[in-house]
Specification:
The chain is mainly beta. It has one domain: Jelly Rolls. 3% of the residues lie in helices and 45% in strands. It is built from one helix and 16 strands. Strands 1, 2, 4, 5, 7, 12, 13, 14 and 16 form a nine-stranded antiparallel beta sheet that branches. The protein has a seven-stranded antiparallel beta sheet with strand order 3-6-15-8-9-10-11. Strand 9 and strand 10 form a beta hairpin. The longest helix has 9 residues.
């Protein structure tokens, strides 16, 4: 039985706080952008894609819904073309196909100080996925307002010499701070298989952060990291928010090829600050 779309925004009520939850899943009906928008940015557009640029109208939408035989579900497929696509005709040295929450999104999808946000999602990199020697990102936690130029946290497949590519968890506390690699593991374990990521952030100057990525149905973590004392909000920010997709440099385009990365089951849960007042 094909998976029906579940777009759930519910309020769970507890004595001390309320918890808002959103789940976005593909349904195969073909109204893909409209489906994504209705969950992540009702009344606005949650996608950043090459089809927003006039240089590539013939392909159409770069996020489609396909039937996945492994999951037996409809899933989202994010497609990028090495020789044609750029960043919406705004930046010609890079390309992206991403979805996001941002200013028009509901408050329950924006991380503000003392809130705890849980993100979960499934993704599958192709067996021959090839990252750029410069940068390739598949997930970012971005700041909005003030010091918002660089993401706080990034999941980034990294090209390595002699074919030893890795998946890095990258962190930058603020604009002028050095970039830190919090965790780095072999990319090979992620290729051609569905994995599920669980990321949890308590927002603040002294916040907490954790992420665990496992193969679906398996207990062993392929990547994990946790800190109870890490900056997850910059003083000038309004909120933090997630992005998912493919965002990569074109400075070494000869290393790249067309890619199709699959995602599904985007889940966001916000626990307000009052939940942690004792």
């Amino acid at each position: 039985m094909k998976l029906l779309t579940l777009l759930l925004t519910s309020i769970l009520v507890y004595p001390a706080f309320s918890s808002a939850q959103t789940l976005l899943e593909a349904n195969g009906k073909g109204h893909t952008y409209e489906l994504i928008d209705s969950a992540l940015a009702p009344g606005a557009h949650a996608e950043e894609t090459p089809d927003q640029c006039t240089n590539h109208p013939q392909f159409g939408r770069h996020i489609k819904e396909v039937w996945d035989e492994t999951l037996k579900h409809w899933v989202f497929e994010f497609m990028i073309h090495a020789a044609i696509d750029n960043d919406r005709c705004e930046n010609l040295d890079r390309q992206r196909v991403e979805i996001k929450t941002y200013e028009p999104s509901p408050d329950s999808l924006k991380g503000t100080p003392s809130e705890t946000i849980t993100y979960k999602w499934k993704f599958r990199l192709p067996p021959d996925f090839q990252p750029s020697p410069t940068f390739t990102h598949i997930h970012q936690i971005k700041c909005v307002g003030g010091d918002d130029g660089d993401p706080l946290f990034t999941l980034s497949p990294r090209y390595g010499k002699n074919g030893f590519n890795t998946l890095q968890l990258i962190y930058r506390a603020e604009k002028n701070a050095p970039t830190s690699i919090l965790q780095e593991v072999s990319l090979g374990s992620f290729l051609g298989t569905w994995v599920e990521a669980t990321e949890k952030i308590t927002v603040g100057a002294k916040g907490s952060y954790s992420i665990v990525i496992k193969k679906i149905g398996k207990e062993r973590a392929l990547l994990s990291y946790s800190s109870d004392n890490i900056k997850t909000f910059r003083e000038s920010n309004s909120f933090i928010r997630p992005k998912w997709g493919i965002y990569r440099s074109l400075n070494n385009v000869s290393y790249l090829k067309d890619e199709a990365v699959r995602f599904n089951s985007f889940y966001i849960k916000e626990d307000p600050a009052t939940a942690y007042h004792k």
